[in-house]
């Protein structure tokens, strides 16, 4: 990000100079200015109409009792209180937090270990490409595969049986299912974060490690005093990305249940599943208010976390 | 890295670490090969001998998935939809990003940040009002509606990505064009856009990859079978399996239809995809 700054400064400097002195505004600069709105507006209007406005509308809906048709009834914060009293929502919200913090910790630890291991591995770019690949495969496909891997007569159990374990654990039983799902998401994501962190670590000049070697630092000290501080801001960005991506988790859990018509067991829901089922439940009246309230809670969580991460991770920029 | 201690540490790392990394790599490759092998096997064989290679290539899996499983029409729908979305996204986001990053307008910084906020908005936070507004307009159960939705929700990332890219281009060319008397819009379409070609191609790639497997919006906004995209066909096929018995062969053939184009794309343009997806964070 630092490299982009001089270019940006150079790009804006001449225009600013031209606008500063009134007399210096040539027809060309004015012409350029005239381009701004027609260029930005189409994209911006589309974005505002399909993302910004609906967020506001969702917040509005969350204060009403509504079945999607007919009159909306103002209920104030009642949807929120009802929702937090609902054990299903509490499980969903708990799962979201578990994925966010538990899954995040494991993913980041794994990514760091892989980065360190990949540092001077022969064939590292091949290894990196293969590890990255699950990221571009639709989560739906990975989920179907994951389900097949872990089901009772699935791949994993057949492998376990062949090495003599006759009674493997019930992977997809209620109490284990979400852990299996998290494992799948971690597997999918690790390559992504490894690649980002690797790029940051690669930019650390080798002479710093040579200094470490001269000072007799061991691997942990090298990591703690060179690698970690010098890739700190990238880790911050990764944390933001993870927060956003974890909140979007949806189809991975949906497909574990087998199909679109039957929903997965409530013990595996996250906030997004909860919002979806509150409206599209196979049975029952759609509850738009509740769905909207759960969406607002997730959005608020994302917002708070992103601000917090940026605060916590902010440090003096290390020039190197 | 020249002293004995680091050499020793390096050797230990290689001895312990390398097998771990390669085991991970092998697992990923195995998974992919296993999907492809299973797509050509009979369901019975997938269950009884999941590790065996196919005894013969059962193309009937693909035939069933393609016709009865609706993967044929779905592949066509996905293909057109994803292509149209990528095209529209670039056509809208490229001028916007250029204007935001290079025209020096006072509101540009704030507008760019506003676009960036969109990166954090999940689909389930916007689908309710969108559904309510789009249904009376006939945009639900309509591929045009989904196309509009995909294009609009692509804007945050596209603008975020392309502003970064345009910013990195040299300013001299713009200035030279101005001195030669080129109009600003000519400068954009004929000089800056071709210069940004590589960024635009990467954006198209990422956009295509994103929407190829998009499930949430498709699930909410498309109900008719004729209009299904590939993820919906996959879900539908799994649903059928509950009534008609497990057809894992057909299912894996369907999965192969979804995954193979991505594998091809990745082998062909993998470096570009990786760099694009991690750009802005790795820099």
UniProtKB/TrEMBL annotation, chain A:
Membrane-spanning intervals of the chain: 39-63, 97-118, 130-149, 180-201, 226-245, 288-309
InterPro entries from the UniProt entry: MetI-like (IPR000515), MetI-like_sf (IPR035906), UgpAE/MalFG_permease (IPR050809)
UniProt keyword annotations, A-Z: Cell membrane, Membrane, Transmembrane, Transmembrane helix, Transport
Keyword Signal: no
Predominant place of localization: membrane
Sequence ranges assigned to domain ABC transmembrane type-1 in this UniProt record: 93-309
Record-stated family: Belongs to the binding-protein-dependent transport system permease family.
Record's protein name: Raffinose/stachyose/melibiose transport system permease protein
UniProtKB/TrEMBL annotation, chain B:
Family assignment from sequence similarity: Belongs to the binding-protein-dependent transport system permease family.
Pfam families documented for this protein: BPD_transp_1
Lineage of producing organism: Bacteria, Bacillati, Actinomycetota, Actinomycetes, Kitasatosporales
Domain ABC transmembrane type-1: 75-269
InterPro entries the UniProt entry points to: MetI-like (IPR000515), MetI-like_sf (IPR035906)
Origin: domain of life: Bacteria
Protein name: Multiple sugar transport system permease protein/N-acetylglucosamine transport system permease protein
Protein location: Cell membrane
Keywords: Cell membrane, Membrane, Sugar transport, Transmembrane, Transmembrane helix, Transport
Membrane topology qualifier: Multi-pass membrane protein
Regions that span the bilayer: 15-37, 79-100, 112-132, 144-166, 187-209, 248-269
